[in-house]
Each structure stands twice: as structure tokens, then as C-alpha cells.
Here is the input.
Amino acid sequence: MKLTVNGTAHELGGDGTIDALLDELGATKAHTALMVNGNVVPSEQWATTPLNENDEVEMLVFVGGG
Amino acid sequence: MKLTVNGTAHELGGDGTIDALLDELGATKAHTALMVNGNVVPSEQWATTPLNENDEVEMLVFVGGG
Amino acid sequence: MKLTVNGTAHELGGDGTIDALLDELGATKAHTALMVNGNVVPSEQWATTPLNENDEVEMLVFVGGG
Amino acid sequence: MKLTVNGTAHELGGDGTIDALLDELGATKAHTALMVNGNVVPSEQWATTPLNENDEVEMLVFVGGG
Amino acid sequence: MNEVYTMNEDVLKIGDQKLGSRLFLGTGKFSSTQAMIDAVKASGTELVTVALRRFNRAQAEDDLYGPLSQLKNVRLMPNTSGAMNAKEAIRAALLGRELSKSPFVKLEIHPNPHHLLPDPIETYEAAIELVKQGFLVLPYIPADPVLAKRLEDVGCAAVMPLGAAIGTGKGLSTAEMIKIIVRDANIPVVVDAGLRAPSEAACAMEMGCDAVLVNSAIAAADNPSAMGAAFKAGVEAGRMAYQAGLMPTSEVAVASSPLTSFLATQTD
Amino acid sequence: MNEVYTMNEDVLKIGDQKLGSRLFLGTGKFSSTQAMIDAVKASGTELVTVALRRFNRAQAEDDLYGPLSQLKNVRLMPNTSGAMNAKEAIRAALLGRELSKSPFVKLEIHPNPHHLLPDPIETYEAAIELVKQGFLVLPYIPADPVLAKRLEDVGCAAVMPLGAAIGTGKGLSTAEMIKIIVRDANIPVVVDAGLRAPSEAACAMEMGCDAVLVNSAIAAADNPSAMGAAFKAGVEAGRMAYQAGLMPTSEVAVASSPLTSFLATQTD
Amino acid sequence: MNEVYTMNEDVLKIGDQKLGSRLFLGTGKFSSTQAMIDAVKASGTELVTVALRRFNRAQAEDDLYGPLSQLKNVRLMPNTSGAMNAKEAIRAALLGRELSKSPFVKLEIHPNPHHLLPDPIETYEAAIELVKQGFLVLPYIPADPVLAKRLEDVGCAAVMPLGAAIGTGKGLSTAEMIKIIVRDANIPVVVDAGLRAPSEAACAMEMGCDAVLVNSAIAAADNPSAMGAAFKAGVEAGRMAYQAGLMPTSEVAVASSPLTSFLATQTD
Amino acid sequence: MNEVYTMNEDVLKIGDQKLGSRLFLGTGKFSSTQAMIDAVKASGTELVTVALRRFNRAQAEDDLYGPLSQLKNVRLMPNTSGAMNAKEAIRAALLGRELSKSPFVKLEIHPNPHHLLPDPIETYEAAIELVKQGFLVLPYIPADPVLAKRLEDVGCAAVMPLGAAIGTGKGLSTAEMIKIIVRDANIPVVVDAGLRAPSEAACAMEMGCDAVLVNSAIAAADNPSAMGAAFKAGVEAGRMAYQAGLMPTSEVAVASSPLTSFLATQTD
Here is the structure.
């Protein structure tokens, strides 16, 4: 299914869950925060939350900041 | 009729208009701005605007200010 | 003999040495610096240095200073 | 005669007076101050003051300064 | 005189209004109405602020309507002092306009009598409404560049950041922020409150401010009228300097005289 | 105009000489002689400094004797720039007097070209001799209150403490010491060097200084003539303010408007 | 050591959280993660800020989660940088909490990349919501006393007024306003942004501020780790001085040595 | 601790003498000898100044010889306070050396009790003689770069420019001149007089000064011992920062966090 991930088009395979997306992109789950269509999705729900066509996904990590 | 004028109780006689009040209190109309129950009343309407029992009237003048 | 010690007249007895003066005034020698007529006299010379009539003696100690 | 004028060697002709030097160098007398061997020479004396071999002459004018 | 000529041509526009002087005066704190009038005249100001107070027959002499209306070429800018929130400020503005028939309003909302510093939230809300009601809104604000920009965006005619708390005379304590406000603003920037000396007014103008509003410094001077003239000269000095282009600063000394060494002779 | 009138009466006395302007100008660093002349005129100064340089036929246009002698009501104060010690400074002073026929000398001895700061020891020694030789000595000095007092005691006509190093434009960096010099002095105190803006000149005058000497700030401005006029206004503003008596500062705010609460109604 | 002992007892409370250090550190701008970690350790800080950025597999080394989680006794305070308004800031705060499991949030909303100064209107709105959602909200704000008080009133855990614009190193340019914020506040006041030197951090503490947040000054130092230690000492110095009670200033000199005149003799 | 380690290695050399602390203490103005001793210990100083006074049997408790001689690792620097000229200062120095057996002398000649500012002429003359007589001369001087250089040239071991008048607590009012002194000096520069707060001591060290001399700020604090510790930390903070290399200042903001715009969604 077609998604926009961090502003870029992405074709998601697998079972279409958030977990699947993270695995595909090789993100470290414990270091990642995630938002779908502007709503934060807690990590406990990633395994069970299905993504839908055209979802906007933001995957975020901590970096240096003041 | 009983009014509150500039925070003080006042018994208004005359025809009960704003003009009557200003005359009673000896205010210079051209130097005065007036508010009834929190609403500004333009001077053109003073002659014709009747006051009502318990109205709150504020009569104001210009003084020095920064 | 008549001296001026720290600005005050003083009648010195004893053998008329600086040591005698310090003893009379009860100064702790190790804590005191001394000047006669504007010239510093080292402590080693106090026992042997005779004072003369009208000498101006200054006896000084350390106090708090910035 | 050989002079040093403003730090530069100069061969003076004429009658050897300061006036002669100023004329040779085309200086405006009224705008010039002059020193010979470190001593200021007033303009009144220029016509009559002879220069001597190896004199150090400084000729100065006003320029912008703070 | 050169500078007076410059000044005459250097008109300040606030909304559609034109002012020939970049010094605004407050009328409070003067020892007498006459002292105030004299200072206003000496200052050359064309815009003075006034406040509203309850009519009191016993204090008729405090009523400035008469004395001020006799001044030629001086316009009134009623303030909203005493307002604790946006609603009260709007009321005060409407009352002031009734009396002054002036488009100008000095929007000031300062809930705390201890420092009289402005409330950015209430001021922003009131500004939006007063602009809608057709006022030329000049809000008294903290030296906050983002707030200043947002007030410009909602249609204020100018912004008036404070130099220091009213009446403290601490001058341009907020200079760094005022410089940023000036750099970004497309409307006039007027330093209001805190100025104590003409040198500070001049400095504000040198920074590129468009005008200054002064009250305490003049009213509380030993000689208010002479101080009014002093501020007039200070504002003109700063404005001229801004236009003339200040020299840059330098970390190292730069000689203003030749450093030739003619003075040492070989015989020394 | 009120302030011009004040100025006219406010004569500055240096020794037996009287000056109608409290702004002294340096003539160095200008892009052209004409630019300098225009700035001098716009500034209203009555005392300008000049330096000595070796005569050079090829640079006849640098000779300022002619142009300056045409200025009415402007007197010359030759400086001793280039002098590395007292002996050289005395020589320079004598040469300058020969040309200027002026009693004024700006005594400056600054051995270090990197900062051009004055030498207190050589300056003190030279001042004693120049006073003996009948000059009105105005020494350029560090902002050193004891040195200033000693120079007064040996007969200097005025003292000229620096605000900052020549040409740096760092302003009144020595303000605290200058205040002490002013408090103790019985001769005029002139701030010399470091001033960049009219606001700084005004501030010096507000502190009680008797005059300021400016060069770089005017010569290096984009528009020297306009900057000359700006400094004129700044000096007058500061002087008037000093005479008018500045308000005191306050740690707490002091309202300039009544804080009555007529604006809240019972129905709010 | 005396002062270390003092420090140990001098706990800072923010909401229900206790911190042993009054120096907060930002983690941006360091040349490497190791340099940042070393500086954090040398500074003795117990609270560091972090930002969120889009995951990028190619820049895995920028991910600070791992390195920071290994630091003992250091808590995280995610910031909301990048947020242009209240809605975006709330989103960023929620994301940050997901990752950090920390109650702290540095609320920063600065729409203008040229000066990065905070938006008081959006910040106020976001603060109200984030307090409702149980955060310990530490808003980065202009040095605006009324805004600071309103943020306290809506439940913020602390306020963080700026000293100067982020990264400028202009220090405590807003000192006068910060003093008023400190005087009125019942919650901790933390100076955030603008500090360049330990002396400025010490000065903020001497003024009564409860802590300072530093990033650029340490990250951009030649030796960040040594600068971290320097700021640690500076903050402790200022805090100790605040507690020890600074001497008052005086307009006149006050001798610290006796001025007796034993040195002159009658024979002089 | 990192910084303490640094400090241990960072020895200050004055002439042939080595000092482990860059904080010098004055011993005047303390409420009691015990309070002074406690402050000296808390400050970690290794060099304290003392004054001379006429012996007075009735005030034996003021005699500091005993108490100070019991302090380990603290050396004495007698001052010449009370001296009105070079001759008296030389006398005082010789007397002080008799008692202290110390090579250090703080040369201070301040004829005016109202401001206690140093006399450059007398100080220069006395310094030449005291150097001849083998002292390590540390003159208290105005912040005058040329005088400082001349004192270095005649053999002074250090120079001690004032920050402000003794006891005023006006801090580094002469900072601009002190920076020049530091830039040119080949001997230690010690800021003496005027400092009120550890932040000011830190600032002096950040400017590159080698040490500071403090008395009133510690003696007149509510808690002198805690203030001694605060100054110790302040001096160490400033010294470490100087060695760590301060970041440059910037006219424009420099972000410390990424400004990515992930927070806005297309649905906003």
C-alpha cells in the first residue's frame, strides 16, 4: 500500500502494520516515536495497528537540541 | 430615580435623561464622555436617552496621562 | 628623656634603648616594626640602639587592610 | 651647502638663509613653521638667519588632525 | 539651520496621519497644567497622550480638555490606562475617541500596579478588536519581537515597546530586543516608557526607532520646559545621526592625526 | 527657539578664552578638505584641532592653513600628535603656536601606535613646561581622576579624558571615572576620543562634562556634514538636560496615568 | 569543600522533581556525540534537552537515545523545536514523552528562523493544554514579566526567559526584566539562551535565578568539556553568592585599610 | 574533579614566587578576626594583604600578626595604604618588609580619601625605587595601559589596575582599558578594587586577567566565609573558561536544534 513516510512516498508490504513498516526501514523501535496522520501512536499499539492507503507516517528519533 | 454615578448612589430628578444628569452634576458636556452599564453613549444621544432605575453611569474627563 | 612616640609625648626611662621603650609600652617585639625620625630600624638593632632627646618614634603593627 | 631638510639631503644655494631655502623649495612662508636642529625659528628671523653645513631643518605645515 | 531643514522634510507617517515631530509627550505627573503646556510647547511635539478619569466637580482644574484644545498643531492620543483586560481597554478606547475625535489610541493594559508592565495576551486580543473598529492602534508592549510582528500583522499602526518600566528612568534596558523589532518592522517603532535622558532618546533614534514617547523624564525634571527642549534636540540629533550613517566601531585604534616622527632630531 | 536662546547665553570659558559652542572638532580623516569645511560649518564648532606634518610640495592640497583661516569664528588648537615624549611634545607645541598664533594647544603624547593611548608621565612633565611658556594647555589624558587633578594643579586650562581609544567608537567606556573627574574638577572637562554617536556626546554633557571633542565619528560618517549637525544637536541636548536637572531613577514603577478602575462594571 | 557541601544540600525542585545541579545542558551543535557526552559529565548537569528529528537510516549515529540513556543521574527534557504554533508544539511534546518517558518538556515555539525568538501567544495557548496533559512545562519565553506570571498561573512548572537570542552569546541583555520576573515568581526561573560565559551564568544566579540552560556556549567552545566544568563552577559561584548576600554598591569610596598618617614625619 | 585538577596545574608566577590560587584577599573591614580567618580559608587564597597601623596597647586584638602567621600556605603582602606620596610609600614598604619578611608589596598611593584612587606620578616614582630595593612590586593603578606598560618596563612584578573605586562595588567599570592592559602585558595583571560579585571576578578572568584582589565584597557580605568560597569558584570558573576558549558572539541567531517541519501535516 502507498504511504507517505517522513515526507517521502513509500510502498509498504508485509502485514501492513506499523511494526512491519519499522522492520522494513530498519528502525530501532525503542529509539523511535511515531505519528500517523498527525496522531501519536504509542509503541504498544504498533504490532496491532494497521496502516491504510495514503497514510502520512512520521518516524522520529532524538537528536541533539538546545 | 436611583442611579449609580461614578460608583456613588445618585437620585436623579428632571426628565430623567442623560442631559438632565449632566446638568444636575454641573459637568461640561463638551468635556465629558459617558458610559451607561458599560456601553458608551455618544453625546448626540444624551438629550434623548432616558436613564433607568439602577443604571450604572460613568462620566469621564481627560486628565494628564502618559 | 623626652620622645614623641606615635605622635604622643613620652618620657623614656631605663637604658634609653629601643628595647627599653618597647618594654615600657608593652609591645610584642616580634609583631612590631619601628621607625626613628623617619628611618626604619631593624629589630636586630633595637637592643643596642640608643634613642636621643626629641626623637620621633613610630611603632607599627599589622592590621586588616585591602 | 649640505643640509638635511625634512629628513632628506638637500644642497642649498642662494645666500644660505632660511628664506632662500623656503624659496628654493617653493614653500608658502605664511603657512610654514620651521625648526633648525630641534630649535624653532620664528618667521621674523628667516630672512636674516644663516644656515650652516649639516644643519637639520624641519619645515612643517598644518594638516588634518584630531 | 541645516538640521531643522532636514527635520521639516522628515515626516513621520502613522497610518494615514503625518507628524512633523518624532517626540510624543505624556501629560501626566506635571506639577501644574501650565508647566505641562509649557513643556509641550518647548518640546515641539505634535502628539500628546491623555488619560480618562471620573468627572469630579471638585477637581475641575484637572480637566485638560480645554487647555489642550487650545494648542495648535498638537493632536491627542487617549490611552487606556486603568484597563486590566482587553474588554476594559476597548471600552476606554471608545470613550477616549468620543471625547478626542482622534483616530489614535495608546493601547495599554498593565494589570500589575507594582511594575505597570503590559500584558501581551490581553493587548493582542484588544488590538485585533480596536483595529476592526477603525482606530490607529499604538500598543504599549514588552520588547518582544514576535509579539510586535503579530501586532503588525493584525493591523496596528505602530508598536511601542518599552525601554524600561514606567517611571523608573532605567533607559533602553531592552535595547537588544528593540534592535530586532526595528530590523523586522514595516510599521513605525516607538520607544515608550523608561527613558530618562535625551541621550537615551537619541540612542533609540540612532538604532532606527521612528519616535519616542516621553512623560516622566520631562514632567519630573527640575525644569520641565527646558527638559522638553532638551528631548526635542536629542530626538533630532539621533534621527539625523541615523540618516547620516554612524561610523563602524573598531577593535583597534585608528589615528586621526599623522604619526610622522619629525619631532625627534639626530641630536636627541 | 528656547534652546538656542539658552545656548547663546551659555558661554564656555577656557582660561581667558570664551567659546559659544561646546563641540570641538578634529580635522583629520575627512575624504576631502571641502567635506571637512562643510562639517565644521554644520557643527557650529568654534574650536578645531590641527596637526603638523612635514612640508611636501607634491601634497600642497593637504595644507589646511588657507581653508581654515577663511572660517569665521573658528579658532585653531594645534595638537602635538607624533610626539613620543615630553621634549618632542613641547617642540610640536612651539611650532604649532608659530603658525596658529593661537594660545590653545592639545597636548597629546601617545607612544604606542596600536592603541594611541596617552602617556601620563610624559604628559604631566610636558604640561608643566607648556604652562610656563604661556599656553592654554588642554591635555589628552586617560580617565584618571588623580592625574586630572594634578594637571589642574599645575595650571592646565582644561583636561581632556578619553572615552575610549581613538577611532574605536567605543563611546563612554570610562564613564565611571569621568564622573569622578567632573565632580572634582575646577577647570573644564572635555571628553576626547572614542565617541561614535551624538547620544554619547549628549550623555557626556548630561554627566556634567563641559564639552566634547569629536573627529572620527564625523569624518567617517556616510554624511559628515549631517553628522556634524547631529553632534551639534546632541551636545546641546545633553547640556540643556544637565541644566534642566534629570529626574532620579527609581527601582519601582511610578505611574504617569491615574489607575482608577471605572472600567470594570458590576455586570462584568 | 565548603561550596560543594552547600551545593549538595541546595536542591532545586521543579514540580515534584528534584535536581542536584542548577545547570541544564542542551545537546545540540556538538562536534561529536562523544564531545557532548564528555561535556555533560564535566558539567555535572542532571537535566539535558533533546530534539526530535525524522528517522534517517543513513544518519543512525545522530540518534542520541542510546548514548544518553547510559548516563547515570541525567534526565531528559525533550524540546518542541520546529513547532510553528501551539498545535505543532503539543504534537512534538507528546512524541517526546513517548520516547523519553520524562515528565519534562521544554516548550519552545519560535516561528522566525532569523532570530528564533519565542511566540508569546502560541506558547501561552500550548502551555495551558500541556499542563492539562500532565507535563511539567518549562516554556522558553521572552523576558516578559506579565507573560511569565500568566504562565505560572496556568500551571507551568518553571519559566525560562531568554537572556538574548539563541546562539548570539549576547548574555543577559534582558537583565532588567529578568530581575522583575524573579522578584514576582513563585516557580523556578531559568535563564535560557544567549549566555556565552560562566560569568554571565554566575550573574544570573546572583540575581536570584534558580538555574540556567546552556548549549551553544559549551558546544561551540574550543574545549567543550572544560567549558562544561567552567559553567558548573560559574553556576555554583553565583548561587553561593546569592545565598551569601552580596554587599551593597556605594557611590563613594569606602576604605579597606586604615588611613592613618604615621608616614609623614615632622622632618619631611 | 576536573576543574580542581586543572587549577592545581595552573600555577601563577609573580616574579620568582608561585601561587596555586588566583584569588588574593584583603583583610580589612571584617567584623572580627575570626570572620576574616574563616573567609581566608574558604577562599583558598595563598596571598593576603595587610596594612600597618600605629601600635596601640588598648587595641591589641587588632594585631593580625599572630592569627595570620598560623595560616598554612598563605603569604603576606603588606600594602602602603596611608602613603600620600612616593617617599611615604617607600617608608611603609620597608616597615612592612621588616615585619612580614615577605618580598611582596602592594604599592598604593591614593592622596584623596574621597575616592582613594591611585596617583600615577607618585606610584611610578615609588615603583622605580622599590624595585631597586628588591621588592616584588604590585602597584595599585588606574586602568591606564601606558602607565601599566611603563611600570612593567621599570621592573614591577605585576600590575593591579582598578575595576572601580575601592569599596564602591561598581565592578569592572574600566573593562575596555583592562582588556588593552592584558593584551600588551608581559607580567601578570591583577584586577584590584571595585569587584562586588563572583560573576565580576569570573569576567575579569575570562578577559585574560591573571588574578583578582578582593576585600570589601567578601568582608561586607552577609556571610563572608560563604562569599569567600563563592569568589573561589568564580575565579576558577573564569580561568577555566579563558583556557577553554569562549565561543564568539554573533549578530544573528544560530539554532541549537534542527528546524525540520515534520510537525505540520497535510491535513492541518
In short: Chains H and E do not touch (no CB pair under 8 Å). Strands of chain H lie at 12-14, 17-19, 23-26, 47-54, 75-78, 104-107, 136-141, 160-161, 190-192, 211-214. The first strand of chain H starts at residue 12 and ends at 14.
